[in-house]
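Input sequence (86 aa), recorded before submission:
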Amino acid sequence: MRIAIGNHDAEYSRIYKEITEYHNLKSPYYSHDFNNIHFISLSTEHQYEEGSKQYSFIKNDLEDASKNKNIDWIIVHNHKPLYSTN
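Predicted structure, token format:
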């Protein structure tokens, strides 16, 4: 099981620390491969605008994944929607 950091995780530093340690996360955003699928887990609670650390991670990770001939799918997941309407 993999997780995406959400607002309730980030709001409470003790819970955040426990969750990241339990799942062996060194960063609140990360990626991993499963068979021919590359998963990217983003943190909606950390900056992701151009120039941010998470933005650089995403850009570099997508570039690396696109060069891997074993990857057929790239799936991005996160806690909150990046876009929504009423």
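Checked by second reader. The chain is about 35% helix and 15% strand.
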